[in-house]
Structure prediction request, 154 residues.
Amino acid sequence: MSNKEDVEIKPTKKVEWIAGLKVAFASLGAKQKGQYSWVAKSEESYVFTAEIDHVDKENNVYNHGEGVFTKNVPPTSKENGDATVSISHAQDLFDAVTDALANELRCRLLLVKGTKSGKDIGGIKAAADGDSWQVSKVDGTVAEGFGFTIIRVE
Prediction:
């Protein structure tokens, strides 16, 4: 991948890349519900993943400099032929962003690259953003598709 395609990261705190999503979540004291979950929870907060090299740039918009991450999740249901585990992961993510928004919870953001939907090769690598983030918007449902926005708050 050329440098022109790389996401420019300007963290306010040092970012260290960790091999493996499970290990990266654990570094924040968070445990995934399932191996491919997009969200985990620690005792203090939700930890959301932002796939910064996602091939679908239209539905996964990450701008570290601006402190904004927006994700749109396509409709997920049995009627669409989606696997039960995919529906469960989408529902877990929807429930977490809805809860975080309703309760104005501070969250963490885990920057991820190298997933099956990413461009990078060589396995999944993740880094915890050192700042606090907050869900500012949630629209839709799991069955109809939903989107959310997370913003840096400190």
